[in-house]
Amino acid sequence: MAHNSSTMPEKNKLVIWPIYFDAARSRSDGRMVPLQSAVSDPSLDMVITASLKAGFKPEIEREKRHPKLWHQAEAAGRILVVKNGPKSAVLKRIAASLKTKYKKKSR
User: Fold this and answer.
1) Tell me, which fold does domain 13-101 have in CATH?
2) Which residues on neighbouring strands pair with residue 16, listed in sequence order?
3) What's 18's DSSP letter?
């Protein structure tokens, strides 16, 4: 049975959505990094820049929508990075470079 590669990324790729790094979201709302590693309003471009700085070569899919947020146009876009270790470790590296580049604005 042929499977459609346009819907599912390859097995050696990790799908990374900007909401994984969103400080305004709870874990159950899609945040995947610890709150202290999260940033306010992470955009796709911020995540792309941070993943490049973290040493990844992201594949950009601007038209994709997160399943939970498919109805929100501003939530469109994700990146794919080659899996080289656990997803949590990859997210940590990207989150760390997000943090250095986009410091959370203090209130």
Assistant:
1) Phenylalanyl-tRNA Synthetase; Chain B, domain 1 (3.30.56)
2) 79
3) G
Residues 6+ apart with CB under 8 A from 37: 21, 92, 95, 96, 98, 99
**pTM of the full structure:** 0.84
- pLDDT tens digit string along 38-63? 999 999 999 999 999 999 999 999 99
Cα(5)–Cα(18) distance, integer angstroms: 22
Domains of the chain, residue spans: 13-101
CA distance 49 to 52: 5
Q: Are 38 and 23 in contact (CB under 8 A)?
A: yes
**39, 31 in Cβ contact below 8 A?**
no
